[in-house]
Amino acid sequence: MKRKTGRKLTAGVLLILLLAVFLNIGAAAAGYENVEPCLTARGTAEIRFRIPGILFPGDGTCGQAEPTEKKLIPGGGVFGIRIACDGVLVVGFREGGSVGFDAGLRPGDLIVSVDQKKIGTVRDLVDAVKSAGERPLSLSVLREEKTLSVTLTPVRYDGGDGQLGIFVRDNAAGIGTVTFIDPETGAFGGLGHAIGDGKSGKPLRIKAGTVTGVLLDGIERGKPGEPGELKGMLRPGGIGVVTSNTEYGVFGRLSDVPAGEPLPVAEPEEVREGNATILCTLKNGSIGEYEVELGDLSAKAGCARCFSVKVTDPALLELTGGIVRGMSGSPILQDGRLVGAVTHVTVSDPSRGYGVFLHSMLRAMDGGRA
């Protein structure tokens, strides 16, 4: 009985295999391909076998719903940022010589520990140097994502307490423009570039960040060789938090989602050269829309300056001279879509600058490479 059952199973398997071969041959003869890529989500694919009248597994839709088009509320409002660094940032050196510079410290270095004890504020560093006296100190330093060890001995400059001969800071603040807000979560992105260390331009490592309101009190118009800026004061209190500071912008969450009509997000290949508009705030409580022209498009991944932006709107040129500091992050709209953000100004010609694809900002917000 066992042998007979085994022969029946073997015969059954052979029959199924022969049927599969027959159907595949029939499919090829009927003009069908044996396999075809079937998009299940943007950027991914699954292989499905198709034979006449049969699709394994699923049906003609690959068993997947069409991806929902992402829609975001365009920003354009100014916001303030206060961030605390995840360490102490070196920003300069004492004139006439510095033991810190001689030991190998450089502007942009982030001191994160002294004698293996983590520090987070300027006061922490001052206390550590003061308690060391003339004893050598071992500093752990971050420089462009690399960890370095620097050993140096404090020096008594001008007869005072021991010093390292360096200028440092543990926080930063500034004004920028919101690029987008997710209407479902309150997540936002702004600036389109990093809050840098002032020397290397690399993103500051942040420990905590607060989003504030801004009281604008004037505009310094841009001139060739002299970029202008929005002038204003950060309002007390917070309206949100900053969670990440990246090469493609700062990201976080707002306490309240502002009113606004969500717009679809354009993929880089959907952005075209030519007319577009930007949203920015030049007067308190008033977001304006101004005409610009996009050019020099680059579809390469990871571009921080993906295209050029030329201000063509007479009203904006009259008010600001073009792109000024504080307008970084101004959302760019084209053909009813949110396509990117203003990021930089050309110093020699403030009417011109650069932009980044919104796609790059969203990738950076999600923790991936843009």
Q: Count of DSSP helices?
A: 5
CATH level 1 name of the domain at 87-170: Mainly Beta
Q: What is the CATH homologous superfamily assignment of the domain at 87-170? A: PDZ domain
Output the strand order for the largest sheet. Answer: 5-12-13-18-17-14
- Order of helices and strands, N to C? HEEEEEHEEHEEEEEEEEEEEEEEEHEEEH
Class by alpha and beta content: alpha+beta
Strand content: 35-45%
How is this structure best summarized?
Helix content is 16%, strand content 45%. It has 370 residues and is an alpha+beta fold. A hairpin with an 8-residue loop joins strand 15 and strand 16 (229-234).
Please supply descriptive tags for the structure shown above.
single chain, 370 residues, alpha+beta, Pdz3 Domain, six-stranded antiparallel barrel, 16% helix, elongated
Word description of this protein:
With 370 residues, this protein is α+β, with helices and mostly antiparallel strands. Among the domains are: 2-56, no CATH class; 87-170, Roll (Pdz3 Domain), CATH 2.30.42.10. The protein has helices spanning 2-29, 99-103, 122-132, 314-320, 358-365; strands spanning 35-41, 44-51, 54-56, 71-74, 78-93, 110-114, 117-118, 137-143, 146-152, 155-156, 162-163, 166-181, 187-190, 206-212, 214-220, 229-234, 240-246, 249-254, 263-264, 274-283, 286-295, 307-311, 331-334, 337-346, 349-357. A 6-stranded antiparallel β-barrel has the order 5-12-13-18-17-14. A 6-stranded antiparallel β-barrel has the order 20-21-22-25-24-23. A hairpin with a 2-residue loop joins β17 and β18 (249-254). The radius of gyration is 29 Å and the shape is elongated. Mean pLDDT is 79; it is low at 1-67.
